Amino acid sequence: MTKPLAEFKYMSFDVVGTLIDFEGGLKTCLGEIAAEAKVTIDGEEALSLYRAARYADDADLFPDDLVRVYLAIAPKLGLPVDESYGQRLRDSARRWKAFPDSAAALAQLARKYRLIAMTNARRWAFEHFSAELGHPFHAAFTADDTGTEKPDPAFFHQVFDFVSGENAGKDDILHVAQSQYHDIGVSHQLGMTNCWIQRRHAQDGYGGTIEPESFTQPDYHFTSMAAFASAVKERLTERQ
What we know:
The protein is of the alpha/beta class. It has ten helices and six strands.
């Protein structure tokens, strides 16, 4: 039986794609470059090209890798091939916006739960994301901190070790994420309870996120952080 939402002590969150609208940020920056170059690009095509380039064997840590990615996809989009534009795409991460419901939902959840950020982004980028979200996290793990990226189980085990130091275990954590590939599949394999935030529920395909080899049925499923936070609030109210 799935553990009730009200009974967790921690909630761990994927950040980029679940809380921060990285697809919107990428399309905005690429669209600005395209407008300056007087060409038109299709946002979904750009995301598809990004996805293919991002997960190449020679990929660097995110979002630093956006310099390399830009140079790989620019010719296919008719954009100027110059490293300065790749640097511009990388640096745009400092201005990426949260989804409209992210900050409020996190603020509500933080009243009851200890929130843990788990992101494949580097620490410098995460600090901007955290500020955009209102600094709601009890703890944060980035690619710089863990030395690896999700879906590597080693990333998750570092979080397990952290909560163990606070006299808790993985059963006390609800893992919340939008990526089937990076989060939902591996968290299930590791025996965690998880919650899928299906941000692209009204769109086809996986956008900028790599497609999983197989779909993992989540323990909980919502299409927004607002709906998730509302459900949690309802469950907490029922317990009172």
